[in-house]
């Protein structure tokens, strides 16, 4: 997608974008520092640039025309049944094959842990002899991401995974999500293992990688459509800091969180020129 222009009214930009969607055009209104400048950028599929440009000219001449408000109403009705659980995460729910596969694996592993907890942890944790090279057990550097030690731990991580990974996969594809998930799991798990030890687990390192990606992609390439509300960014960063301060009621894999976060930010920089797929 390419940038069509900017409007000095966020509401007007969203109104026009809603109208375009009802016409079958891929148009997004991306807020750019709305609390300071009240501006929003319009991004459009390059193949539809001419049509949307003409429509924008007509809109600017008469933004109060009933057809635009009717389109916004129609758009809101279509979205009413599938609103996001957290309005700060500005995206639609979606689950691709990689998103669903990880969800299924995490659920199966958790079921295994309820039946044979010691066996599951021994099979998937990073328990290696010091100084030895275990190529035959290389999965252990990734598999701790599937271990969860309480239902709350599992549900919290999977909710974030579905919301972030689903949107990422829809925008950038299954292969890209798989690359980010595997690399961030490796970095997060190695960091936690080397700096603390083998007794940890959870998908939160990968979740923090996706969080880091959304956080920085929103700055580096807003046209990808992967952004987070500033309140949620603050929450996730404060949550991680509180984990390092050890003032929470839960034990957290803090270095896995930090490793995942840095990995996700790195991926956002590497893919800063990659276009996102339209809605």
From TrEMBL:
Keyword flag Heme: no
In its keyword annotation, does this UniProt entry include Hydrolase? yes
The UniProt entry's GO biological process terms, in alphabetical order, are: proteolysis
Quote the subcellular location field of this record: Membrane
The alphabetized UniProt keywords are: Cell inner membrane, Cell membrane, Hydrolase, Membrane, Protease, Transmembrane, Transmembrane helix
Identify a single GO molecular function assigned to this protein.
Answer: peptidase activity
How this chain sits in the membrane, per its record, is: Multi-pass membrane protein
- TM spans (from-to): 93-112, 145-165, 177-194, 200-218, 230-249
User: Which coarse location class applies to the principal site listed for this UniProt protein?
Assistant: membrane
Q: What is its EC number?
A: 3.4.21.105
- Domain Peptidase S54 GlpG peptidase N-terminal span(s) in chain numbering: 1-78
Peptidase S54 rhomboid domain sequence ranges: 137-272
The UniProt entry, under InterPro entries, shows: GlpG_N_sf, Peptidase_S54_GlpG_N, Peptidase_S54_rhomboid_dom, Rhomboid-like_sf, Rhomboid_protease_GlpG, Rhomboid_protease_S54
NCBIfam families per the UniProt record, alphabetical: rhombo_GlpG
Q: Into which family does the record put it? A: Belongs to the peptidase S54 family.
- This chain's protein is named Rhomboid family intramembrane serine protease GlpG
- Please state the gene responsible for encoding this protein: glpG
